[in-house]
C-alpha cells in the first residue's frame, strides 16, 4: 500500500509523494484508509486533489490529513535571522515600473491561499505600494513593548511598509544609509507572527541601496521581475548579477506584461516583445517562474487592494501566480536548513 501511495505524483509538480518523503502513515481504519502526509512547503490547497488521487490508486475511500512543516532555510553567512520569520524572499527588478510590487502582492496572496503563513515587507521607500495593493492602506501598525505589529489583510498576510511610517515625499531625499537603516528597523523591530515566507519588495534598481540591503537582510532566495522589453532585460540581468555577487540564490525570473490580451476580441499583442524574460532565464540558467499577461483585472485589483478577489475570480491569472509561488516554495524546501539560531555565539578574543 505504501508503495502505491509513494508513486503518486503530487499535483502541479513533477514530484511524487515518495520523492518528497511525505508519507507519515497509511492505516486501514473502519473500512477507510487513513493517510497522513507531511510536506515542507504549503500543501493544504492540494488536499482535495491528493485525496482523489489516493482514492483512485488504492481503490479505497480515503481520509486524508495534511501536515505542513515549513522550516527556516539557509541564508548568507554571518547574517542574523529574524525572530518570527522562517524564510525571506527578496523581490527585485532592475528597472522601475515593470510590476515588481504587483508580483510581490500576488505571489504573497497565492502563497497564503495555498496554506502558508505569509508576510510582506514593503521596502520600496520611493513608492511604497503594498498597503494599497494588499488592501490595508487605511490601517496603521499597532505598537506593543516598543515593537510594531504588522497589519493583517483579508487573506491573513502580515504587512509592514515604510509607507505606514513616513511620508513618501520625504523619503525621496533620503540617502542610502538612511534607507538601509529604516528598512532594517522595520524588519527587525516588527513582531512577525510565525511567518513561513516573508516577501520583501525591494526598491527598483541595483545600486548601493539594493546591494547593502542584500548584504544585511537574511535572505533565503530572490525573485527578479522583468518585462520582455530589451531595456528591462538589461537591467534584470544586473539584478541577477547583484544577487550572485552576494551569494543569494535566484529562485527565478517572472516575466510580467508578457502579452496583452484584448478583453473585447481576445487578440494577443506582444506590446513589450515576446519571451524576453524566458530567454534571459534560459541564458542565465535560472528558472522561469511564469509569464503574466498585461491584464486589466490585475491593474484594477492592485488599485483597489483586492488581490484575494482577483485570484478567486480569474482562474488563469491565479494559476500563473500559484505555479510561480509553488516553484519558489519547492526550491526553498530543497535548500539546506538554517541552524544559526541553535549554536551559541563563539567569540574569539585576541590577546595582545
Ligand atoms: N500584469 C499586469 N497587468 C496590468 N497592469 C499591471 C501588471 N503588472 C503591473 N501592472 C500595473 O503597472 C503599474 C506598475 O506596477 P508596479 O507598481 O507593480 O511596478 P514596480 O516595478 O513595483 O514599480 P516601482 O518602480 O514603483 O517599484 C501598476 O499600476 C500596476 O497595477
Structural summary, described in words:
By secondary structure, the protein is α/β, with parallel strands linked by helices. It folds into 2 domains: 2-68, GMP Synthetase, Chain A, domain 3, CATH 3.30.300.130; 85-333, Rossmann fold (3-Layer(aba) Sandwich). The chain has 13 helices and 14 strands. It has helices at 2-6, 47-58, 100-114, 130-133, 162-165, 168-171, 176-188, 208-216, 230-245, 276-284, 296-304, 307-313, 315-333, and strands spanning 23-29, 32-39, 62-68, 85-92, 118-122, 142-144, 147-149, 151-152, 158-161, 195-201, 221-226, 250-261, 268-269, 288-294. The strands form 3 sheets. Strands 4, 5, 8, 9, 10, 11, 12, 13 and 14 form a 9-stranded mixed beta sheet that branches. A 3-stranded mixed beta sheet has the order 1-2-3. The protein has a two-stranded antiparallel ribbon with strand order 6-7. Strand 2, helix 2 (47-58) and strand 3 (62-68) form a beta-alpha-beta unit. The longest helix has 19 residues, at 315-333. Mean pLDDT is 88; it is low at 343-347. The structure holds adenosine-5'-triphosphate. Adenosine-5'-triphosphate binds next to helix 3, strand 12, strand 14 and helix 11. Binds and transfers iron-sulfur (Fe-S) clusters to target apoproteins. Can hydrolyze ATP. This is Iron-sulfur cluster carrier protein.
Amino acid at each position: 500500500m505504501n508503495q502505491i501511495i509513494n508513486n503518486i505524483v503530487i499535483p502541479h509538480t513533477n514530484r511524487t509523494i515518495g520523492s518528497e518523503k511525505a508519507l507519515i502513515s497509511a492505516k486501514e481504519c473502519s473500512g477507510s484508509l487513513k493517510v497522513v502526509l507531511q510536506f515542507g512547503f504549503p500543501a493544504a490547497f492540494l488536499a482535495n486533489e491528493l485525496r482523489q488521487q489516493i482514492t483512485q490508486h488504492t481503490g479505497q475511500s480515503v481520509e486524508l490529513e495534511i501536515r505542513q512543516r515549513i522550516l527556516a532555510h539557509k541564508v548568507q553567512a554571518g547574517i542574523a535571522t529574524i525572530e518570527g520569520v522562517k524564510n525571506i524572499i527578496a523581490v527585485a527588478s532592475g528597472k522601475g515600473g515593470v510590476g515588481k510590487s504587483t508580483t510581490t502582492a500576488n505571489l504573497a496572496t497565492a502563497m497564503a491561499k495555498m496554506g502558508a503563513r505569509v508576510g510582506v515587507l514593503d521596502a520600496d521607500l520611493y513608492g511604497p505600494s503594498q498597503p494599497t495593493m494588499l488592501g490595508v492602506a487605511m490601517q496603521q501598525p499597532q505598537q506593543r513593548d516598543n515593537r510594531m505589529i504588522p497589519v493583517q489583510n483579508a487573506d491573513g498576510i502580515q504587512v509592514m511598509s515604510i509607507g505606514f511610517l513616513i511620508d513618501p515625499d520625504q523619503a525621496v531625499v533620503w540617502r542610502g544609509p538612511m534607507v538601509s537603516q529604516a528598512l532594517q528597523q522595520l524588519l527587525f523591530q516588527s513582531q512577525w507572527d510565525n511567518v513561513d515566507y516573508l516577501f520583501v519588495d525591494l526598491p527598483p534598481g541595483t545600486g548601493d541601496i539594493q546591494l547593502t540591503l542584500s548584504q544585511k537582510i537574511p535572505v533565503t532566495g530572490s525573485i527578479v521581475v522583468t518585462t520582455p522589453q530589451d531595456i528591462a532585460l538589461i537591467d534584470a540581468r544586473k539584478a541577477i548579477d547583484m544577487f550572485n555577487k552576494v551569494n543569494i540564490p535566484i529562485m527565478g525570473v517572472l516575466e510580467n506584461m508578457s502579452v496583452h490580451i484584448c478583453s473585447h476580441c481576445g487578440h494577443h499583442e506582444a506590446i513589450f516583445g515576446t519571451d524576453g524574460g524566458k530567454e534571459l532565464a534560459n541564458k542565465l540558467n535560472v528558472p522561469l517562474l511564469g509569464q503574466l499577461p498585461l491584464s486589466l483585472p490585475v491593474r484594477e485589483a492592485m488599485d483597489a487592494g483586492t488581490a484575494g478577489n482577483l485570484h478567486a475570480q480569474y482562474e488563469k491569472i491565479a494559476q500563473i501566480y500559484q505555479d510561480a509561488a509553488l516553484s519558489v516554495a519547492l526550491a526553498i524546501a530543497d535548500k539546506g536548513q538554517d541552524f544559526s539560531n541553535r549554536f551559541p555565539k563563539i567569540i574569539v578574543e585576541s590577546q595582545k
